[in-house]
């Protein structure tokens, strides 16, 4: 069998035959789950227990939790969560499962669940046995078995389709994964230790204010200072809940905490609360995800995920079919990206420079995946990137999106309708009354889809039957051929025996003739002896003597004996020949009869195959009449996916009709409980969940699993951050550009790890701490130019650790980790620094962009965002010419200010001498002249825009936070009232704008060193980060204004790529006067 004929049933049959133990029912799949309840419980009147039991029996998930009264368990189905506690039967003295409550699920239901033999609710007085601890263990074993079956099915399908790369032995892969991530585990352990060592802060206070998105607590006592952007535990009368500390403020001499409202508790004014804030550990979620991955607790194929992380070049190749209904908006490269992302069985990478349509590709991929019934998880490291795609995909037909966030205030205001608490209102806003109900239209769609489902089922059943008949015929042919060959071998052997007997008889006949002649000759000689001589011979023989005559008698006797034996042999061979001839005749008759019977059987098989083919052709014709295209029998999986999508759509529509009806009932008479259940049930239909890469771990998603994970801006995501979402999904799609912003590195964490390494080096080699830090800086700079080693900050952190007497607590742990990750190395610090670069500075996307097989990645090359002069600034120095301009379609219109006459302007402050200098403020810089020039440019853009029909969008960027703050002050933020014709989008540092764009971008370089012909290497380190330069320039669509000190920028040294960028920049602005210019005063 070859791949094109494969059906799911055929793959499953092969798997069951080859792996019978793995595909045998697991313990939980044979379990009869008996749940006990007291009839007086409130949930008995608010829930139909038969419906709840049916929901769990259709597929359930079980997890253990801890509460004030000990452990309890949650059994989750698609529409219900059943809370149960272990109990003991009063009379039978065995384990019971005591139901304490039933609720609608807050998170998303799992798609991969365990189906038990039965689920039932029983009066507690009946004492039905159910050991929750045993059931929980069996459920975990069943989940592992289901994942293994999925993996085996995928591998079997791959093996049956086509040959693949030889798999790496699992033991070797696990060892490689362990080695690869050992340094990261070391770093995370050290950062976790710091979190534990930092004193926790506890306090008590009272709630003094409450808003929908904020709660204010006035502290009365505290053991220390609370810090914003951390999580705090609130101890309430009903138990503990967690909330994020959004801000810490002072009001009338008291400290007031601004908290994000916890989901499962109401904090009303006057409520007394106790708070506890843990030490800071920014990578807590990273660590949890990494440990889950290393333990094999992943939804997808662990081997594929491990290979992607450690050796992406070894991922199996796969075929990418052409899109048969491609969106005409997509160009060829985008079509290829969509096709690969949809077809991949494991991972796919889309690399695209700015403006090449990455968000368009993601939107189309989402549409196609949810269209075939998948649930998609869309993540990005920044909220703005998540919201950019959600804004495009969230309202597409068939897409039901859910936006989750730990701090919902960071979600774009226009997209907060997709938040969990608002999604029901958003979805049902058009069906609040029966007059505007969509039920009839949905029912009509169900009727149409039901016909499609029936025809698809008939076609697929016909395809499966044709395949079974063909397989049965082929198996019979193989069996008949084998049996015929065996019979022919037996007939040949029988005739060979006959021939051997003939040959033996011929030889015996010759031998007998010779012996007979010998006997006759001896008899003749004896007959010629006289009678007297015979008597003398007998007498001599009696006395023991022998003469010539006695010798003749002896020879005659021996010859006669041989002749008798030969006659016996001849008789035996005649019998053997007769037997062999009879067997040969019998075998030949049987063979002739079998051949005649086989002809009839073959005709029957042929009739069955032909009948199945005719039925299949009729099904295909009926399906083509409805679907509009002839199905290809060699792509069964495509039509199986189509039927699955239709079935899921029918289920969704049925559910929405029910939801709509319950909405009417709820709006008329129901209380908050019914409305809450309606909203929870509605959330279960979500097929697109959007969050940040770390925020998804804090979201209330329960144990939800996903078919596909899409990570946008993946070039900013390190391995452990990727794993937070990856362990929940079965396939992984990475989208990004390694030449844009790199992963964000928490400087406190980085400096802490560098400081620990410096302290160890100083102690081991007997070095001064400053010398050890400088040595580390040298090692770091050998490999990492763009990400600078902060010598001053590391020295300060190391000094604090040593003088604060905290280093001894780290010493043993650091040495133990170092021996594990760099055994026997003379300079283990080099290994530590390399691991920090690999796991904290470099992204998985960077490795995969070069390492993935060619068929598992594609590059987008045509940009549609910026006018050509702007794109030209980065085309060669950043993308080596692989950044094309569209040759057709609509183009952006340049925004030209009358004062300049061109859309790209470099405003050079070099002529202003010392007045152009920057000023250090704290750890940052401010350039007042540049800030003023930015303001003047905004005035000119506003005046030009006032004469136009639309308000252009404007972003003002800088490399330095203090400079950005100064510019905001000059522009009158946040209202920007002096510029009524402008729509300001981002006025901040460059890092805040990736994933966004504006008509006009104004960039302030800030750093200026007038009068200095030669600058030290790496002066203005931020200005030499080509990735940030690339992001800043390519945010602009129609106009770009660069404000900086030209002499300083030309003299920057230390980063060859940056030197090339500035050489190219100044060559462009001075050699293309029709579209670019340099001005020296404003």
UniProtKB/TrEMBL annotation:
One example of the protein's molecular function in GO is: helicase activity
Q: What is this protein called?
A: AAA+ ATPase domain-containing protein
Using the record's annotation, list all stretches that form the AAA+ ATPase domain.
344-855
Q: Which UniProt keywords apply?
A: Coiled coil
Q: What Gene3D superfamilies does its record include?
A: P-loop containing nucleotide triphosphate hydrolases (3.40.50.300)
Coiled-coil stretches, from where to where? 135-162
SUPFAM superfamilies named among the record's database cross-references:
P-loop containing nucleoside triphosphate hydrolases (SSF52540)
In which domain of life is the source organism classified?
Answer: Bacteria
User: Which CDD domains does the annotation name?
Assistant: SF1_C_Upf1
């Amino acid at each position: 069998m070859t791949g094109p004929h494969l059906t799911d049933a055929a793959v499953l049959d092969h798997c069951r035959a080859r792996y019978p133990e793995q595909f045998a029912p697991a313990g939980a799949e044979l379990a009869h789950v008996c749940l006990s309840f007291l009839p007086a419980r409130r949930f008995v009147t608010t829930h139909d227990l038969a419906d709840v039991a049916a929901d769990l029996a259709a597929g359930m998930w079980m997890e253990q939790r801890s509460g004030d009264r000990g452990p309890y368990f949650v059994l989750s189905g698609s529409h219900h969560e059943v809370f149960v506690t272990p109990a003991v039967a009063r009379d039978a003295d065995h384990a019971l499962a005591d139901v304490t409550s039933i609720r609608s699920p807050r998170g998303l239901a799992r798609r991969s669940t365990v189906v038990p033999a039965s689920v039932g609710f029983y009066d507690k007085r009946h004492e039905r046995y159910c050991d929750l601890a045993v059931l929980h263990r069996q459920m975990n074993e069943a989940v592992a078995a289901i994942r293994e079956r999925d993996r085996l099915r995928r591998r079997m399908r791959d093996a049956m389709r086509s040959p693949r790369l030889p798999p790496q032995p699992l033991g070797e892969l696990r060892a490689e994964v362990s080695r690869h991530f050992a340094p990261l585990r070391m770093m995370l352990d050290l950062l976790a230790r710091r979190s534990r060592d930092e004193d926790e802060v506890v306090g008590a206070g009272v709630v003094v204010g409450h808003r929908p998105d904020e709660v204010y607590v006035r502290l009365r006592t505290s053991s220390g200072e609370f810090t914003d952007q951390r999580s705090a535990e609130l101890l309430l009368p009903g138990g503990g809940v967690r909330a994020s500390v959004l801000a810490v403020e002072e009001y009338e001499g008291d400290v007031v905490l601004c908290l994000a409202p916890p989901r499962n508790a109401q904090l009303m004014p006057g409520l007394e609360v106790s708070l506890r804030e843990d030490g800071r550990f920014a990578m807590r979620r990273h660590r949890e995800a990494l440990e889950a991955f290393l333990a094999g607790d992943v939804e997808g194929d662990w081997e594929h995920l491990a290979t992607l992380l450690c050796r992406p070049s070894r991922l199996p190749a796969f075929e990418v079919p052409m899109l048969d209904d491609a969106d005409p908006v997509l160009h060829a490269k985008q079509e290829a990206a969509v096709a690969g992302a949809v077809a991949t069985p494991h991972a796919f990478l889309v690399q695209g420079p700015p403006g090449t349509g990455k968000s368009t590709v993601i939107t189309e991929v989402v549409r196609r995946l949810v269209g075939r019934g998948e649930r998609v998880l869309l993540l990005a490291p920044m909220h703005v990137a998540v919201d950019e795609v959600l804004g495009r995909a969230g309202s597409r037909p068939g897409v039901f999106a859910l936006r989750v966030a730990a701090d919902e205030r960071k979600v774009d205001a226009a997209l907060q309708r997709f938040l969990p608490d608002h999604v029901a209102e958003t979805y049902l806003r058009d069906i609040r009354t029966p007059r505007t109900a969509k039920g009839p239209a949905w029912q009509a769609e169900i009727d149409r889809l039901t016909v499609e489902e029936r025809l698809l089922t008939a076609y697929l059943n016909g395809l499966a039957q044709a395949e079974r008949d063909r397989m049965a015929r082929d198996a019979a042919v193989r069996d008949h051929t084998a049996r015929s060959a065996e019979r022919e071998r037996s007939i040949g052997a029988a005739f060979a025996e006959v021939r051997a007997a003939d040959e033996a008889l011929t030889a015996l006949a010759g031998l007998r003739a010779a012996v007979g002649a010998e006997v006759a000759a001896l008899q003749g000689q004896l007959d010629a002896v006289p009678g007297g001589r015979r008597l003398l011979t007998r007498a001599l023989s009696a006395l023991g003597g022998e003469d010539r005559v006695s010798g003749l008698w002896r020879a005659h006797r021996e010859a006669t004996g041989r002749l008798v034996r030969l006659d016996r042999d001849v008789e035996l061979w005649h019998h053997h020949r007769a037997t062999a001839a009879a067997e040969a005749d019998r075998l030949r008759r049987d063979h002739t009869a079998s051949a005649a019977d086989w002809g009839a059987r073959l005709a029957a098989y042929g009739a069955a195959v032909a009948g199945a083919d005719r039925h299949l052709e009729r099904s295909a014709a009926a399906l083509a009449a409805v679907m509009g295209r002839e199905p290809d029998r060699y792509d069964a999986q495509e039509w199986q996916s189509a039927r699955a999508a239709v079935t899921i759509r029918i289920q969704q529509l049925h559910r929405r009709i029910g939801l709509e009806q319950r909405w009417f009932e709820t709006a008329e008479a129901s209380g908050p409980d019914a409305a809450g259940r309606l909203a929870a049930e509605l959330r279960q239909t979500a097929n697109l969940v959007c969050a940040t890469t770390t925020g998804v771990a804090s979201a209330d998603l329960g144990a939800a699993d996903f078919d596909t994970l899409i990570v946008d801006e993946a070039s900013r995501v390190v391995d452990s951050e990727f794993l937070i979402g990856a362990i929940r999904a079965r396939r992984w799609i990475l989208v990004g550009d390694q030449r844009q912003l790199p992963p964000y590195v928490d400087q406190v964490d980085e400096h802490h790890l560098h400081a620990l390494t410096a302290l160890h080096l100083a102690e081991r080699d007997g070095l001064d701490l400053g010398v050890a830090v400088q040595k580390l800086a040298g090692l770091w700079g050998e490999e990492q130019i763009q990400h600078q080693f902060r010598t001053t900050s590391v020295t300060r952190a190391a000094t604090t650790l040593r003088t604060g007497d905290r280093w001894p607590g780290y010493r043993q742990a650091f040495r133990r980790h170092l021996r594990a990750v760099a055994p026997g190395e003379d300079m283990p610090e080099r290994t530590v620094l390399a691991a920090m670069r690999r796991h904290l500075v470099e992204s998985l996307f960077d490795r995969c962009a070069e390492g993935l097989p060619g068929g598992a990645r594609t590059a987008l090359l045509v940009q549609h965002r910026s006018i050509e002069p702007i794109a030209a600034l980065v085309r060669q120095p950043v993308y080596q010419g692989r950044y094309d301009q569209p040759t057709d379609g609509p183009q952006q219109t340049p925004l030209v200010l009358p004062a300049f006459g061109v859309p790209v302007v470099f405003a050079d402050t070099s002529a202003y001498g010392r007045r152009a200098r920057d000023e250090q403020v704290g750890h940052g810089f401010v350039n007042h002249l540049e800030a003023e020039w930015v303001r003047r440019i905004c005035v000119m853009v506003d005046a030009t825009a006032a004469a136009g029909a639309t308000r252009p969008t404007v972003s003002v960027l800088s490399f330095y936070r203090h400079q950005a703050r100064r510019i905001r002050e000059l522009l009158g933020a946040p209202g920007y009232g002096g510029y009524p014709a402008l729509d300001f989008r981002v006025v901040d540092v460059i890092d805040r704008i990736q994933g966004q764009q504006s008509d006009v971008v104004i960039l302030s370089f800030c750093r200026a060193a007038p009068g200095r012909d030669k600058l030290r290497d790496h002066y203005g380190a931020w200005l030499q980060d080509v990735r940030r330069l690339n992001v800043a320039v390519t945010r602009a669509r129609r106009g770009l204004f660069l404000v900086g000190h030209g002499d300083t920028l030309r003299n920057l040294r230390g980063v060859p790529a940056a030197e090339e960028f500035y050489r190219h920049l100044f060559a462009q602005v001075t050699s293309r006067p029709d579209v670019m210019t340099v001005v020296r005063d404003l």
